[in-house]
Amino acid sequence: MPGPERKTKWGNPPWKIDFCSKKISIPKEVDFAVVGGGFSGLSAAAWLRRFEPSKSVALFEANRVGAGSSGHTGGMTLAETAAGDIPGLGDVLAGLSEIVKELALDCDLSLPGAWELGREDGLPDSPIAWTDTGDLRAVKEVPGGTLDPGKMVSGLACCADASGAQIFENATVSNIEFQAPLRLNVNDNVILAHKVLLATNAMSLELSDLTKRAQPKFTLAVATEPLSEVQHGALGLGSGRPFYTIDFPYLWGRLLKNRGVIFGSGLVHLNDWHELADVDISAGQAAELLAQLEKRVRGLHPVLHSVKFTHRWGGPILIPEHWRPVFSLHPRSPHAVVLGGYSGHGVALSVYLGRWAAEVMLERRKPLG
Ligand SMILES: Cc1cc2nc3c(=O)[nH]c(=O)nc-3n(C[C@H](O)[C@H](O)[C@H](O)COP(=O)(O)OP(=O)(O)OC[C@H]3O[C@@H](n4cnc5c(N)ncnc54)[C@H](O)[C@@H]3O)c2cc1C
Questions:
Q1: Which residue segments constitute the domains of the chain, with CATH numbers given?
Q2: Per-residue pLDDT tens digits for 24-47
Q3: Is the pTM of this model over 0.85?
Q4: Nearest residue by C-alpha to atom 31 in ligand 1
């Protein structure tokens, strides 16, 4: 069921999330509690019930599902992690494709590859020739592609809901007592949970014990009006491959189904994750970075000189030490798992590791560590 239109100071991405949780009362005790309704938490909730239909699962989301990074992302599906491959990680894109197939997720996943762009050593036949503090060219084709993040959030939420996981929106976990069973404070309720997954990403860093180990940031993107096939060809984007730079200043982007193009770049620095609530894309540093991004996009190629922008938005990311995602047991309890911190590289990884986290909660697997 579609919920009311989502409008925030973070702007509006070109994605639509068609999910609204049922009005049900919060249970007193559950086998598994998931905190956070982004890709990570929703994937874990969907898989927990699939693996163990007899166990109770409750997911608590402080806002609406997809209100964090997952509903504001760019939707580029990339292999590995922001820190490259990690021993034992496995094939993230193959895992994502398998999940999409097994859960029958209608999310427009397409994996034609992705372009790495650079200011040096461009491929002699680079289809991309842009001007951006030097000449930007494709330097390598890597595995990757795109999906529709709104459809992925909705699809995972519907799947979790249909399997019997209870999803509670506007349900903030304000505190956890790390005893057995764990005691969660949710709005005015106390819930006992035998296992907990903390999938709160850039927020609630006190709960996930990540205040000292990861930095929350806010990053920005814009979408253009639809362009013609000829314009896509001139830009070198005819193959439908998304792109990202391997040097600085950073730039990434992808095509949309309506033929618009998303471009993203820029980081708003925050002293504390609580400042995310005050970030407004129409004011301060976020507005300045968006204006710079639009100017930069218009300068990339003559096709973009007077392009109109239809969407402007931003969202949180969490950058952990050494860019390595966090997937481990909570230092205060072996019954709590922490998953998140993918930097700008979490679309495929969050869904993939969400399933793995469900297996960890069922004690069938160890976290990546
Ligand atoms: C603009 C932008 C572009 C991006 N582009 C890409 C890209 O193209 N490719 C890519 O791979 N990655 C990209 N990323 C990163 C990617 O989107 C994230 O890594 C991924 O969505 C993280 O998913 P998650 O479920 O871990 O976190 P989130 O989606 O942030 O979910 C965490 C959820 O927890 C909830 N929460 C927090 N605290 C509590 C609490 N106390 N109680 C209950 N709920 C709580 C939040 O409201 C939130 O909904 C981008 C991010 C942004 C912002």
A1: 29-361 (3.50.50.60)
A2: 999 999 999 999 999 999 999 999
A3: yes
A4: 38
